[in-house]
Amino acid sequence: MSENHASPLGSPFTLTGKTAIVTGGARGIGKAVVQQLVSAGANAVVCDLDESALLEMKASVPHSERVVTYAGDLMQPDVPQQIVDTALSAFGSIDIVVNCAGFTWDSVIQKTTDEQFLAMLNIHVMAPFRLLRAASGYLRETAKSEISSGQRIMRKVVNITSISATDGNAGQSGYAAGKAGVIGLTKTLAKEWGRYNINVNAVGFGLIETRMTQPLKAAGEVRVGGKELPIGIRPEALDAMVADCPLGRLGSPEEAAGAVLFFCSPLSDYVTGEVLICGGGYHF
Questions:
Q1: Does 3.30.1520.10 match the CATH number of domain 19-208+252-278?
Q2: Shortest CA distance to 160 belongs to which of 210, 117, 200?
């Protein structure tokens, strides 16, 4: 079978001609992922709730003509299919899917409502599930055609999880449960889709410098179902976590995106069903 590892001289890989779907791509880690994928040659379809933030993101990306934005709420059942349709209409293929969208809505369990808990499951498990299910027809049929003609063309799924899932974290029963569900989804699809030359992996983040790790009052809010939810961390709690981190600092979105880029690239062609923790060595 032929391999698709061609790369320009001096570069370990190229993603030229590949199309990526990135959810939650307007800010933070998702934005950095889009920038790195496009810099490596990929096209990108980027979904986020905030249309103005999406436009700002697109303007910041070199070769922005290779970026198509989709403003929509992934918690709505029909949106994932619309994103898949947008990718196929704009670029004619889907080669990489990065499920990065998410937020936190924290409480200790006795104060956590059904609405809170279900929102965490919806955005962190149901949304990736629906998007991958929507893409499955194209991915499977395309792979079957390639395999029958003697080609091995690898495609990539990267799901974002958290050390809250692997370690647990007080006050995050919903978030941790949702992110743990991502790991189960990842490992299951790695077994289902290996026959189609699709690598399915997850990256679990710890202390990354995004809105979710800014001081609580400075971080702002996120709108969910008509509600404005505060995001961020109490400064004293953040200071304590940074002090316990072996690297002694928060990671940058660009460093976080590097771990994702590895799983999107040919460098990970023989890695599947794995969870890579990118958290500076910090664990709860």
A1: no
A2: 200
The answer to whether residues 104 and 231 touch, using CB atoms and an 8 Å cutoff, is: yes
d(CA 188, CA 219): 35
Identified catalytic residue from 70, 175, 196, 282 = 175
CB 196 within 8 A of CB 156: no
- The distance from CA 185 to its chain's CA centroid, rounded to whole angstroms, is 13
The whole-model pTM stands at: 0.91
As a whole number of angstroms, the distance between CA 248 and CA 282 comes to: 9
Does 175 participate in catalysis according to the annotation? Answer: yes
Tell how strand 155-162 and strand 96-99 pair up.
Answer: parallel
- The size of the chain, in residues, is 284
Give residue-wise pLDDT tens across range 229-281. 777 778 888 889 999 999 999 999 999 999 999 999 999 999 999 999 999 99
Supply 9's token pair.
């001289």
First CA to last CA across the chain, in angstroms?
Answer: 45
